[in-house]
Amino acid sequence: MVTGENTQVVPIENVCVADEQKILCVVRDMVDVNCAGIKHTLNLPASTPVARLISDLAEKFSYLAETISVHYEKQVGTEIEEMPLEHFLNRTVSDVCVVGVRRHDFTINEREGITARKVEASQPQQCVATCATEAESEVAGSSEVVASSSGYYSGGASGTSSGDVYTFSTYSDSSYSYSAALMKSDTGYVGLVNQAMTCYLNSLLQTLYMTPEFRNALYRWEFDGAHEESEKNIPYQLQKLFLQLQTSQKRAAETTDLTKSFGWDSSEVWQQHDVQELCRVMFDALELKWRNTNQANLINQLYQGKMKDYVKCLECTNESARVDSYLDIPLVIRPFGATTAYGSVEEALNAFVQPETLDGSNQYFCEKCNKKCDAHKGLKFLSFPYLLTLQLKRFDFDYTTMHRIKLNDRMTFQEVLNLNHMVENPEKDEEDLIPAATGGKVSDGPLEDSSDEARTCGVFTGIDVGAESELGSVQTPSDNQQNLSSEAAANTKNAKESECTGPYVYELFSIMIHSGSAAGGHYYAYIKSFVDGQWYSFNDQHVSKIGYDEITKIYGGASVSRGYYSATYSSSTNAYMLMYRQIDKQRNADFVQPDNFPDHIRQQLQHLKDKDEAEQRQKELDKSTCKIKTFCYHPVLKKKQEQRLEVHKDKTLAEATEMVYHLFELRSALPLDCCRLVKYDEYQDTLERSFEGEEDVPIGQLLGGVKQTYNFDLLLETKRPDQQFHEYKPGGVTVKVFVVDMDLEVIQEPISVRAYSPQTVAEFKDIVSEVLDVPVTNMRCVLERFHNDLRYLWMPHKTLKAEGFFKSNKVYIEYSGLEDPSADHFVNSRFYNLLDRHQNTIRIHVSLPSVAEVTEFIKISLRHSHLMERAVNCGTATKSLENLTGDGVTPKYTGGHDPLDIDEGISDRGSDSEVDFRVKSLTLKQSKSDPSIYHNSCPVDEQYMQPQRSLAPGQTRTLSLTEPGSEARACSPILVQNIETGPITRLSPTVSEGRTSSPVNGQSNSSQDTSTSAEFSLNTNFSSVAEFDCGREAVEHSNSDSEQVEPPSPGERTISDIDFKKESGEDVCSATENWDAETLDVTPSDETPDVMVINEDNVRRYFFVVSQEEDMLSRQRHLTVRVDKRITLGAFKKELEPYVETTVDNFKVYRVYSNNQEFESIRLSETMSFFEDGKLNIKLGRALKPGEYRVKVYQLQINESEPSKFLIDTIFAKGMSVLESKKLIIPEIKEQCSIDLPLDRCRLRKKTWKNPGTVYTDSQVYEDDLPIFANWEVFLQILDGPELMVSTSQLSIFVRRWKPSAYEFGPFEEIILCQQTLEELKEKLSEVSGIDLENVEYAKGRGTFPCDISLLEVHTDLDWNPYVTTLNSWPLYICDDGNVLYYRDKTEKLMKLSDERRKELQNKENARLSRGCGKSTYSPRKEKALKIYTDDPPVKQSQDLD
Fold first, then answer.
1. Is 219 exposed, middle or buried (0-12, 13-18, 19+ CB in 10 A)?
2. Are 718 and 685 in contact (CB under 8 A)?
3. Res. 1083: pLDDT tops 50
4. Is the dihedral of CA 42, 46, 50, 55 positive or negative?
5. 705 or 6, which is more confident?
6. Secondary structure (3-state) at 631
7. How far apart are CA 776 and CA 1176, in angstroms?
8. What is the DSSP string of 259-317?
9. Which contiguous run of DSSP H or E holds residue 510?
10. Do residues 424 and 305 lie in contact, with contact meaning Cβ atoms separated by under 8 Å?
11. Contacts of 247 (CB under 8 A, 6+ apart)
12. 212-220 vs 199-209: helix axis angle to the nearest 10?
């Protein structure tokens, strides 16, 4: 097509190659084994000659055409037949390919008897095929996306005509290359990459780019700031993007630089916004940046129009008006409440200016008439902008469902739009502008256009196909309409233009489309080129031609009417924003061509070209560069380092080795000839092979070519000058050798050593001796096959394969000669102990409270302990607390600890389920710390309590219960079953100060036991090894309380925590214990003589403080400790005592997870196995002792709006009576809440959410009479008089009087029923109210306490005076304390309410009841507003007035 000066389109009869049928070809190069898996995609015209295809493929893949054979893989049934294309040189591609197949596979192979030869291109290829993945191939073949084809046409491109084929070429000559199909779209336009959800941005940018006046003005603006400021300058980045769209040869351009100039981060591109909102925000940002430049008024000049907002008196015709400016016109699709939609844009425009009549109570006060008069209020257009933007308001809000909806109703639009009749003519009487057909009223539906000129000039037969059909039914265009040629469309358009008079005649050039629903969707644009009049689809990176029939599909509408909001909830595709350009031959501009670019644009274009060329050169270089990870164990730093080696494939191995040598900066450490590169597997940490004699071989050949990733790595191996490198053949084993320093007790970093499975242990020692330069005489080697599986290599003639060596191994060696190397003494050696500690040591970061916080807490804890002691000692309970032994010791309450409760602990899960007792397995795969050492409450000597403690060799510590200052404990007898004999053995507690715990004859139902007393004396002799889990093992919010214990298998070391051995009359707790030296009982395993079974007696686990710091502001302390992960939590807490500076009873351990959530760790017998590199927070709080429970106390306020008020957190103990607990909490409440409570006027009762339940009597005992659980909650009720509930057979009921004559409630009162009969209930109600017995009526309240109900509903909604025989019959169903009853006098008449009084009462009741209801905290996720961030202050816009 040729574009004339008058912008009319002159059609040419030739057919473009781009319109020809395309064949999708997928090509693989089978000659190059490194590229066989890479598929290259071409979209070729069907008329492409086979000979041309072969030559183009040879050029693309750099082969000599006569040395390769291109095969077509033809599908024949289930088999594939390969057809060599050299037999069909005179055919076209369509003749060879199978008809009906969407994609066709081709392969490049060597010709028979000829070796394929590559050639170096003499000139850079002007068009390079793009590699595509399978996914891209699928997209490329889809009907909606034209991937690539013959050539492309753009303004100024040269065209050639040959016969019936009309082609366009971007080459310097007129020849056409099918390789160009893989680059730019055949349309000649460049798409935009969708960053995530930026399709709305891409649609607007392409529209602005295709607007000549905007693009040209943007090019005329010159950025004069610093280079650093250009990244944040929006016009500069937009200018650069437009240059890329106009000159780039890529398929799509990136918008990341532009969005960065918006101030957006990565999260912004994941927010979808409205394209009209973006248009306004971006125009505002451009105006800010263009201040004080020639483009300062560009947006207003192009997009701004004027309208008048007026009110006109219908009596005197006086008009009050205000002039406003606008950038776009929002058009309503369907008026609010209407059942039909506007059928076209012109109908919506007429409705936009239709005046509203102000009459009745809404009359307008006319200053001229000096009274209220009927008036017209509306809008009038004074002028339309050069570029007219119409927004179709398809998004609405459905007040029925309270959701946003999208209106998909059909709305047609014209290509040529005449708006002259809508502009106010100042020479004409304004009254004549109001259409007479409306009669001064607002229409509820579509408006008929009364303008003959509009009907004549607004019709567009080329696009508006079926516009006159009924609403909701889309007529299919006829074949003649579908096949309208460009000439017919242009002639129709020109004819309509000639019929229209006036300046405001517009031509449609952009349609921004939304596909989806109100919840989300996708934007793309249909844009007409002003160069050739062709419509194109700009869908992100895909640009393709479209016909007129595609435009008719985006009018919207549904085939079946669904009433109000028809097609509302369906996802649909329709036009959302339209852009028109005024037809003005004087103002209509053409796009500026590169030859006419301003100088600053040329410089910027050159900069972009240089950047593209540099990227292309880098890509070419990358194709010849091997990139592989390289490692080196630095001989000086003694640590493994990693670098990425990038080396040209033609570099030799020696040159690559030198590069790695400098890469790791080894010049000062050792000479280059002491280094070599070997093949290495980082994942398995194995040495694969060495490259002896291949120093001159290219590195690309050794690595198998240039690849994106390699399944192996390289290692720069080093040696001493006097050492020789060994050849590494495939099939060897790699051993990481760790040297153990026995004097410093340090294990050094490993050294990799290569060996072979057939070698013996002695030969392996020789290799290690040579590599490490250490003596082999006293060398001891230990193989770690698995974790905690140490195998002593003491048989010199045994092969490595027989010893269990794998491909990758760990071996520990020491050569000091300080210990007996025999196998019998290995497990008792220091060497073994160091390895055992090394394997099980973990690092933990601990946060401690400040010293001031600890001191304050101890004072509060002591006060609570004294209160508990005084409360219990003054009571008459059968179980009591221990006596305090000193002012500095917190009392320990054992309270008749059940001997069978030793495996019951705290459950912070708040479950009310009862806990079953479990006896643990006596043998563990991993040993546990001795509970007799750590879990008891006996303080150790002062030396142990210091952070830095050590003993001289042979020195021992003695623990005695009779030491001064030691705290005596009473503990319960514990049942232990002998493994071998099976009978039950009872361990009796040591008596302390004459107090013993009472014997327990059964298993407790529920307990909370986290620490245990461990002062045992034996009644019978036994030789079995027992392990006790002291405290129920409560996992941190786990679903199971069971501990997974595996029996030892042959070859595993089995270590027990404690070996109770007692001679007659000897007390275990008073025995002498050596805490530093481990006493090990070693016996060989019967099944595996090499493995010893170790029984540890009183094993103390490793604990070492690495660092200790204190925060200068918060004074919080931080520890980094290395600890044996087999240590129990109880033992770990004991080790922390001297650092926390209080006993284990006064602090709790919280584990911190990666999301900074923390949970209390309360299973004291749990090991620290899962705490590696973990973080712990130590918080102050009295740890619960056996039989203790945390309790929250709330005050019950029955006549308050909020009946439940929190008071205190406290601790109750099993065996404590209700009276004792009241004595305990009364002083605490007085101290913390300033409430003075008399003992005889307070009551404890059950709390179930907000409901008060069973009343607890003073004589009831927790656990025996009252079940008590974790995180318990109780109500404290303050009585008006002495307690009347003295027996559990009594029943407490809350009653409230309803007074119908006054429409009011009385206060809550409580009645106590002793016989629990209906007669007694009525008597009590009559007694408290004075109502005659026969006139008492009652009804049960509904819901939770206080069972509120509206005054307007209580008289009729409740079930008054139900027919029941007993209290526990339905609908009363009163069988527990705390029920609510309403009662009334049946003789009392209901007061009659006036409407005003009823309404007033209704409002008061609604307010009262709403206060008592919990407010929902849910709020839907708010949409993030679209914003472009600029550093400039906003522009103050002056308002234009008449």
1. buried
2. no
3. no
4. negative
5. 705
6. strand
7. 45
8. HHHTT--TTGGG----HHHHHHHHHHHHHHHTTTSTTTTHHHHHH-EEEEEEEEETTT-
9. strand 505-517
10. no
11. 594, 605, 608, 609
12. 80
Q: Residue 1390: is it exposed, middle or buried by C-beta count within 10 angstroms (0-12/13-18/19+)?
A: exposed
Residue in the structure block whose two tokens are 């996720």 = 1421
> Which residues lie across from 641 on neighbouring strands?
632
- Answer for the pair 971, 1014: CB distance below 8 angstroms, yes or no: yes
Dihedrals phi, psi of 701, to nearest 5 degrees = -70, -40
Residues 441-472: pLDDT tens digits?
333 344 333 344 443 444 333 343 333 333 33
Q: What's the one-letter identity of residue 666?
A: L
Judge whether 1339 and 1361 are in contact, CB under 8 Å. Answer: yes
**Structural tokens at position 285:** 């940002």
**DSSP letter for each residue of 107-120:** EEEEPTT----B--
* Tokens read off for 602: 């040329």
- The per-residue pLDDT for 783 is 94
Rounded to whole angstroms, the Cα distance separating 1394 from 995 reads 76
Confirm if 1230 and 1236 have CB atoms less than 8 A apart.
yes
Instruction: Select from 1351, 1347, 1345, 1334 the least CA-distant residue to 1298.
Output: 1351
Beta strands in 246-351 (DSSP E): 252-253, 305-313, 319-326, 329-332
- In angstroms, rounded to a whole number, what is the distance separating the alpha carbons of residues 303 and 282? 13
Residue type, 1229: I
Beta strand segments in 384-464, E: 387-393, 395-398, 403-406, 416-418
Characterise 1437 by phi-psi region: left (phi > 0), alpha (psi -120 to 50), beta (else). Answer: beta
> Are 981 and 1159 within 8 A, CB to CB?
no
Going by C-alpha positions, the residue among 835, 728, 824 that lies closest to residue 789 is: 835
Amino acid at 1024: S
The whole-number average pLDDT for the span 696-708 is 90
Helices (H), 77-155: 93-96, 134-141
Spatial contact of 1229 and 1239, defined as CB atoms under 8 Å apart:
no
Is 1036 or 1252 the better-scoring residue by pLDDT?
1252
d(CA 761, CA 759): 7
Phi/psi at 673 (nearest 5 deg)? -70, -5
pLDDT tens-digit series, residues 869-902? 665 565 443 333 333 333 333 333 333 333 333 3
CA dihedral 1224, 1226, 1230, 1235 (to 10 degrees): 160
CA angle 575, 581, 584 (to 5 degrees): 155
- Name the 3-class secondary structure at 1304: strand
Active-site positions read 199, 522
Question: Is the distance from CB of 1226 to CB of 1049 less than 8 angstroms?
Answer: no
The whole-model pTM stands at: 0.49
- State residue 482's pLDDT score: 38
Strand boundaries in 878-1034, DSSP class E: 957-958, 974-977, 984-989, 1016-1018
Q: Determine the average pLDDT of the residues in 615-626.
A: 87
Cβ atoms of residues 1261 and 878 within 8 Å: yes
Residue 1170 CA, distance from chain mean position: 25
Give the model confidence (pLDDT) of 1102-1142 as tens digits. 899 988 898 888 888 999 999 998 899 889 999 999 999 99
- 34-58 as b/e, with b when 16 or more CB fall inside 10 Å? ebeeebbbbbbbebbbbbbbbebbb
Report the helix count and the strand count for the chain, using DSSP H and E. Answer: 29, 61
Alpha carbons within 13 A on the beta-carbon side of 914: 10
**In the beta sheet, which residues pair with residue 1121?**
844, 1105
Is pLDDT larger for residue 995 or for residue 792? 792
Instruction: Report the alpha-carbon angle 1246-1251-1253, nearest 5.
Output: 35
- Between CA 892 and CA 872 the distance in angstroms is 13
| Closest of 1082, 1119, 1270, 1249 to residue 1184, by C-alpha | 1270
CB atoms within 10 A of CB 721: 8
The closest of 1219, 1297, 1299 to 1260, measured between CA atoms, is 1219
- What's the DSSP call for residue 616? H
